Amino acid sequence: MFFLAANVREILNDLQLADSFFGIEMGINPTILEDDDKGRAYLRGAFLATGTIRDPESGKYQLEIFSVYQDHAEDLANLMRKFILDAKVIEHKNGAVTYLQKAEDIMDFLLVIGAMECKDVFEEIKIMRETRNDVNRANNAETANIAKTVTASMKTINNIIKIMDTVGLETLPIELQQVAKIRVENPDYSIQQIADHLEGTLTKSGVNHRLRKINKIADEL
């Protein structure tokens, strides 16, 4: 029995899980908190034991390490902060959780514990997801701009047709006739394309000004 107790004491001491009175340590031994190499090794072991990372594909980044004791969770957070990581602690059922929520912190943590390949995989998924989102946003913006251009174009075309059916296009000043003809013949043209199609050096602002004049004339008919 004494041999068994001695072995238990020795194991707990080696793992630095017992104090001098053979009580169970609820926090992390100060010698680990003070030594960077030991700290890295401890974080690596803690993560392998009870750590999880949310799938970065979800877009909600989170790394968690579960602790039975609140003191241990707080010490883990302090240990992470030594490596410039924004660690936080939250109470959890049957214990507490030390967690990171920023993608950069999670990648840095993986570097701290020597998980280079995991860091690379995490970063690749993150970059691919962000790139995909950027492309989708750009496509949505382009689609919205196209829809806006088409709507404005159809309004002007309808007004030009109204002028043609009532007073005739030839009653307009020649510069308005030119813009009106290009707009009717090319409903998908942007303002810049209309400007490029005209002879001379008319700007987008100039084209817009003429189109507004045409719309105003039609509104007054």
From TrEMBL:
<protein>
    <recommendedName>
        <fullName>Probable cell division protein WhiA</fullName>
    </recommendedName>
</protein>
<dbReference type="Pfam" id="PF02650">
    <property type="entry name" value="HTH_WhiA"/>
</dbReference>
<dbReference type="InterPro" id="IPR003802">
    <property type="entry name" value="Sporulation_regulator_WhiA"/>
</dbReference>
<keyword id="KW-0132">Cell division</keyword>
<dbReference type="InterPro" id="IPR023054">
    <property type="entry name" value="Sporulation_regulator_WhiA_C"/>
</dbReference>
<feature type="domain" description="WhiA LAGLIDADG-like">
    <location>
        <begin position="40"/>
        <end position="132"/>
    </location>
</feature>
<dbReference type="Pfam" id="PF14527">
    <property type="entry name" value="LAGLIDADG_WhiA"/>
</dbReference>
<comment type="function">
    <text>Involved in cell division and chromosome segregation.</text>
</comment>
<dbReference type="GO" id="GO:0003677">
    <property type="term" value="F:DNA binding"/>
</dbReference>
<dbReference type="InterPro" id="IPR039518">
    <property type="entry name" value="WhiA_LAGLIDADG_dom"/>
</dbReference>
<keyword id="KW-0131">Cell cycle</keyword>
<keyword id="KW-0238">DNA-binding</keyword>
<dbReference type="GO" id="GO:0051301">
    <property type="term" value="P:cell division"/>
</dbReference>
<dbReference type="InterPro" id="IPR027434">
    <property type="entry name" value="Homing_endonucl"/>
</dbReference>
<comment type="similarity">
    <text>Belongs to the WhiA family.</text>
</comment>
<feature type="domain" description="Sporulation regulator WhiA C-terminal">
    <location>
        <begin position="135"/>
        <end position="218"/>
    </location>
</feature>
<dbReference type="GO" id="GO:0043937">
    <property type="term" value="P:regulation of sporulation"/>
</dbReference>
